[in-house]
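Inputs:
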Amino acid sequence: MLFLIGLGLGDVKDVTVKGLEAIKNAKRVYLEAYTSILTVGKDALEQYYGREIILADRDLVEQGSDEIFEGARTEDIAFLVVGDPFGATTHTDLVLRAKQEGIEYKVIHNASIMNAIGCCGLQLYNYGETISIVFWTDTWKPDSYYDKIASNRSRGLHTLCLLDIKMKEQSVENLIKGRKIFEPPRFLTVPQAASQLLEIPDRRKERGDDYTAYTEDTICIGVARVGSDTQRIVSGTLRELTSVDLGDPLHSLVIAGHMHPVELEMLKQFAVTPSIFDALLAESR
Amino acid sequence: MLFLIGLGLGDVKDVTVKGLEAIKNAKRVYLEAYTSILTVGKDALEQYYGREIILADRDLVEQGSDEIFEGARTEDIAFLVVGDPFGATTHTDLVLRAKQEGIEYKVIHNASIMNAIGCCGLQLYNYGETISIVFWTDTWKPDSYYDKIASNRSRGLHTLCLLDIKMKEQSVENLIKGRKIFEPPRFLTVPQAASQLLEIPDRRKERGDDYTAYTEDTICIGVARVGSDTQRIVSGTLRELTSVDLGDPLHSLVIAGHMHPVELEMLKQFAVTPSIFDALLAESR
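Outputs:
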């Protein structure tokens, strides 16, 4: 049996009791290590579980599943995923390959940013499509998600923005020379993402777009290390979020749509400038 | 400190290690008992935690928070919620009232249907706005969510439909006479919701709507008791789902939007009629 086990978002103790039991009973334990991270590393997990952990990078998961699946018809293999196991397409793909090999699987769910983002105070059923914001380079500045934000906001919906993670990047030189040397991990931060977002409306206007999805005054929320003891939540205008320091990864960003009074009250708790939310609350009543 | 603790979706062992520790250390333990249910009841939780549990119905949570908050400035109170604590507005409201009383709070996240629905194979970032489908009566058949489904599907997005729960309903007679006698709990099932959905396009056409959000051939997915050992997932046309029996509650329904091949492959595993998905896969390639 292949167990796909969500670890939640914070630290070692965010695993469920069911998940912990499955980890302790498994023949081998893999940790998917390229779509997300906890606030603690492999060593802390190994110590807490009392089990050796094999790090599974993209190559192993996408091309080395024979190794992961070895013996899984008769023994239990644990595949750990930060958040919930179905947060990324790559895990659905792993399940499909397991099924093809005649291996049964079981999922042990956990919190992921897709539902834990509720902590910022905006109601989950008021969110539209989730988007991903990637690191811009000097020559590559994709902004197709701008249309999705516009579509969400035109319906009054909030937009959760997942921020880019680069876990095992190669420099162009190392890539060309085929050297398996990797750059240190990089994580897009809330101020970086906010700065990129702030550039898009003008770029789009120059290209002839006749609508504006948001402005520098649009209310946004930055969150960091959700579920951990060092969790941070900050609400303010998009402009304000370009200069907040939320510390270590992971960060996520929300672009608010229409806000109900209860949502505004909650956001006010995390405000850079509370008076902005007092004004919005006065308007909404 | 007020601890809001998500219990996840299945049974007693879906609580996180962090959540379980907080429950064991709390002075009093409340279980919110009107927005969702686990596959096990209060007795099983009490036995597993080794703690007495106080059931918190809507009246207690919305009007009796003084009782819940008693002593919370100096002692720890645990407030348990099925799924994740921020699944319903009522919990955000509770947090705001705690803050007003000068009580600190901490959230221990867990899986909820909002992210665990990933188990059906449709990718979470391809979902649009979530809707709620309520029980229809002979005289009250609300269908405003039809426009939201249409809006999601016009953008190729999937729609998660949360199905109605009636936990402490009073009959009209008992309500009028002020008798606190409650009907047995009722849970909208997948076939009931599918039957209601199937009626709406014709009703809307009669009222002059010029668009169709879906037809009886639209692919839908029914799920039941997600995360438990008796979990069921069934995929098929909306028509097919009007006659599947998924057993005990809770049920949820998904109306698919545009489906990628990996999504179709996954849905095929749960199909009433696999050949329908073979045909869709052939088209998509």
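Remarks. The two ends of chain B are 55 Å apart (CA to CA). The longest strand of chain B covers residues 219-224.
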